[in-house]
Amino acid sequence: MSTKVAIVGATGKMGQLAHDLLTRTMQGDEQEFEIVAELSSKDALEKMIGADVVFDVTVPGVSQSVVDFAVTHGIDVLVGTSGWSGDRILALEHRLAQTPTVGVVIVPNFSLGSVLATAFSAMAAQFFDSIEIVEAHGAGKVDSPSGTATRTAELIGAARAAVGPVSAPHTDQRARGQQVASVPVHSLRLSGVVAKQEVIFGGVGEVLTFSHETLSPTSYEAGILLGLRAATEATGVVVGLDKLIDLPRLLAHSSKAATP
């Protein structure tokens, strides 16, 4: 039996990408996914009723109402919209504690390469006191910092819990970026850019940079399918594609394999 999907934000770039991707999976005798509703950010949310999972790729001002409606009606959700801060996620976790059969998977970035770069950044965070993020997206992106940059900064902050906040001088100057979990984040919005992020670590006599650039939106397809599959099985709130690929286990396995 195929999983029934409602795409909310279907008229946007990510919504159109999801439509094309899922339409391809609907070919043949065995359909893994079936699109049963496609909504714009302004459509009545009742149109999503009957879906097994809602794929939310709207805008930050709409996303929370989409998730609230879906949870109220017992529908699992895959969130691909930016703007889900730690506080909003915590409030959602409290709510889902009352509805244990519903799952919400929040994925700031569906690119596997981006997820790995963020994970490596969190690993390096405790070794450098000077850390900044520069992220770039297309000129039409309505929010900043990006969800990926916010997620990266929050993970860096958590990794540094024992050593304290990063060193960020001259925070009174607007050009120093917006601080997220003490990490300065600089957002660029440029025509011709899909997505790019650099996490820069400054140390004594050295600089370490983790850089990831999305060259085509097709890089999101594997992550979208992974997220949709996980959303139908999840309970509570799951944040990050890294949780779906069990990155801690993979890193532990790689470490053991490298041990002579």
UniProtKB/TrEMBL annotation:
Assigned EC number: 1.17.1.8
Cellular component, GO, one term: cytosol
Record keywords, A-Z: Amino-acid biosynthesis, Cytoplasm, Diaminopimelate biosynthesis, Lysine biosynthesis, NAD, NADP, Oxidoreductase
Pfam families xrefs: DapB_C, DapB_N
Domain Dihydrodipicolinate reductase C-terminal positions: 114-244
Pathway: Amino-acid biosynthesis; L-lysine biosynthesis via DAP pathway; (S)-tetrahydrodipicolinate from L-aspartate: step 4/4
Domain named Dihydrodipicolinate reductase N-terminal: residues: 4-110
GO BP: any one term: lysine biosynthetic process via diaminopimelate
Keyword Transmembrane: no
GO MF term set: 4-hydroxy-tetrahydrodipicolinate reductase
Top-rank EC class of the record's enzyme: oxidoreductase
Catalytic function, reaction form: (S)-2,3,4,5-tetrahydrodipicolinate + NADP(+) + H2O = (2S,4S)-4-hydroxy-2,3,4,5-tetrahydrodipicolinate + NADPH + H(+); (S)-2,3,4,5-tetrahydrodipicolinate + NAD(+) + H2O = (2S,4S)-4-hydroxy-2,3,4,5-tetrahydrodipicolinate + NADH + H(+)
Family stated for the protein in its record: Belongs to the DapB family.
Protein name: 4-hydroxy-tetrahydrodipicolinate reductase
Species whose genome carries this gene: Subtercola boreus
